[in-house]
Design goal:
By secondary structure, the protein is of the alpha/beta class. Helix content is 49%, strand content 15%. The longest helix has 27 residues.
Length: 419
């Protein structure tokens, strides 16, 4: 009888353990879907790594389903901004999103649909300590941390020194050298001097504008001094710098030309370096200041232009979305993205990349005395797109730079009057 009682007691104890174990598993990892929006899509540099890490996360968390709604932001079709704004208008924000800061953060902040990270950091100071202080500053809107900066980027002039050597040209370390290279290569070779599109001039305009007018005037949107920067692009156009059909070529098209060795120079960003780093002749420098420019030596276009947002609804629903963001914003995960390109917003340890173009880019950043965010991060998006998209008209002689700027000012005034 005593043996039977022991057997029954042991059986009941086992049932209790199993019951507790099942309840813990259910409590720790209930079935849940997390809707995520990023720009890691299409031909984006980090898209393959993104696919890898979310697959790994779901394998480690079988009850969590990541609904990946990532869409492109590069090229002529900017899908992510309309998508985010449509979600805000419909009051249906994604659970979390890697999205832009600066002026793009304002609608998200004003919607009241997203958390600010300050209180979350108060409850987890160790996690906050893993971020670089300067990076967190970039994620603030009206003094509050609205997004967690992730991958920093920088822009500059990339050139293929082998082409310059072949034609005994001085490297493009001065504006005069750039113009001469364009004139020689456009008339005496089959090379494209400058592989940039006039359909989307972001890095081209950013770098030349900063070199021509300097950080202070660049921050004064549509300042009269901007006309000279637009005229510098026309000067390049007149020197035969751009490929044929530059007004209609996509970013993917011109980047392929440069990566294939068909072009001598390209204004672009850190996100393209992984695609050209195996060419030992590639180098990256900051844009040289034109002779009449008021730029500042050492000023570069660099910023943490995007970060992670989390909706209040997801945060209040469960800890699942926060756990996923913490996984993405961990030094281990982020270092995998940085290995592809960019610089980290967190204190990560990454293997030193000794490929020549990466070494030159690192030297450019090490010598930087001032980092300035891309123009489109602070300027009204609609006005910026109209201005930058019509620089080609100045190149073709249809309008002057002053006329284009005046049109942009009138456009901005109309938008502000209707707000």
């Amino acid at each position: 009888m005593k043996i039977m009682k022991k057997i029954v007691a042991l059986f009941l104890a086992c049932l209790m353990v199993l019951s507790i174990g099942c309840s813990i598993a259910t409590a720790e990892e209930p079935k849940e879907s997390i809707r995520v929006i990023t720009y890691f899509a299409g031909s984006d540099t980090w898209a393959p790594i993104w696919k890898e890490v979310i697959a790994e996360y779901q394998e480690a968390h079988p009850n969590i389903t990541i609904i990946d709604e990532s869409v492109p932001t590069a090229g002529t079709s900017d899908v992510i901004r309309p998508k985010m704004n449509a979600d805000i208008a419909a009051n249906t924000p994604a659970d979390c999103a890697l999205y832009f800061n600066g002026s793009d953060a304002e609608p998200l902040y004003k919607s009241g649909l997203y958390v600010t990270w300050d209180e979350i950091f108060e409850n987890d100071p160790e996690w906050r300590e893993q971020f670089l202080p300067a990076a967190l500053e970039a994620g603030k809107t009206n003094g509050e941390i609205t997004n967690l900066p992730y991958i920093g980027s920088f822009e500059g002039l990339i050139y293929n020194k082998a082409i310059f050597d072949e034609y005994n040209l001085e490297y493009p370390t001065t504006w005069e050298n750039i113009i001469k290279a364009c004139q020689v290569l456009s008339t005496e070779s089959d090379y494209i001097p400058l592989s940039n599109s006039l359909l989307r001039v972001t890095a081209l305009f950013d770098c030349i504008l900063l070199a021509q007018v300097g950080p202070e005037n660049r921050a004064n949107h549509l300042d009269p001094s901007w006309a000279a920067a637009i005229d510098r692009i026309k000067e390049l156009y007149d020197a035969g710098a751009f490929p044929k059909d530059a007004a209609t070529l996509s970013l993917a098209d011109v980047r392929a030309m440069f990566a294939d060795g068909r072009a001598a120079m390209e204004f672009d960003g850190s996100w393209v370096l992984s695609g050209i780093e195996d060419n030992p002749d590639m180098r990256m420098i900051s844009c040289p200041i034109p002779a009449d420019g008021t730029g500042v030596e050492g000023a570069v276009i660099a910023d943490y232009a995007s970060g992670w947002y989390m909706s209040k609804a997801a945060y209040e629903r469960s800890s699942a979305t926060l756990d996923f963001v913490k996984f993405m914003c961990s030094p281990e995960t982020l270092s995998r993205f940085i290995a592809v390109g960019g610089y980290s917003a967190m204190k990560t340890e990454t293997a030193e990349n000794n490929k020549p173009v990466n070494v030159s880019a690192a030297e450019m950043m090490a010598a930087a005395t001032q980092m300035v965010s891309p123009t489109n991060q602070s300027m009204n998006r609609e006005v910026y797109n109209a201005l930058s998209g019509n620089i080609v008209l100045v190149c073709e002689g249809e309008v002057t730079s002053e006329e284009l700027l005046q049109e942009a000012r009138e456009m901005l005034a109309g938008i502000e009057a209707n707000q």
